[in-house]
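Comment thread on ticket #2218

A.B. wrote:
> Attaching the input chain for the structure job we discussed in standup.
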Amino acid sequence: MEFEQIIEKIRKKKGFISDMDGVIYHGNKLLPGVKEFVKWLKKENKRFLFLTNSSERTPQELQEKLHRLGINVERNVFYTSALATAQFLSSQKPKGTAFIIGEAGLINAMYNGGYTMNNIDPDYVVVGDTRNYSYEKLEQAVNLVLKGARLIGTNPDLTGPIENGIAPSTKALISPIELATGKQAYFVGKPNPLMMRIALKKLGVRREDAIIIGDRMDTDIIAGIESEIDTLLVLSGISSRETIDEFPYMPRYVLKGVGEIVS
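C.D. wrote:
> Ran it. Output below, let me know if you need it in another format.
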């Protein structure tokens, strides 16, 4: 397919589900062409969601971060794995209780989802991205799971990018609990199609009219494929053209970055 045809097909979409790190920014640096892309989304009245597997920040914190980088969008365009986890647990067991290992993004989402915190006999042990990880919390989580609490992870990422390298993400943090208890965690974030279905509902578009934009083959692209949503891999994050060959599946489209959609 010619480059012009690819751009034309992408531009016709009504709903855009975009990953953030590696697509919109890298660390605290806005990526090239992003301002123009967001301006175009607004001008064309496209429906869009900024979707992140990270569960640390609240939508307000993400809105403020983008504002600092020079992009102004409504708070409701942000959707995180913390919000998806809270929504999933509210549908499974409304007004339940949880022991949480995580940051403000997860704690707020769980509170807003009607959950109360409980470190004695919770329904769930929920683990998200966090720097407040301690042996004491780990020990507590293990014993609560052994007593019957169900184990939930906000996302299945092993690592996440930080300014000076990588940081262990939720799957790495939850693994010791799985190993010590013999119980497998259930992960809500990408590539779980559940998160994609919730995103489509929030956008109010059919999957045929949506596209998912991401920089990772193992979360963003597989999430799109498994949800039957067209996929666009951008090479502005962790993937290169060589990376694509390491996987048994392909993205529908590949661009250098989101700026190419509107340039």
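A.B. wrote:
> Thanks. Noting for the ticket: DSSP finds eleven helices and 15 strands in the chain.
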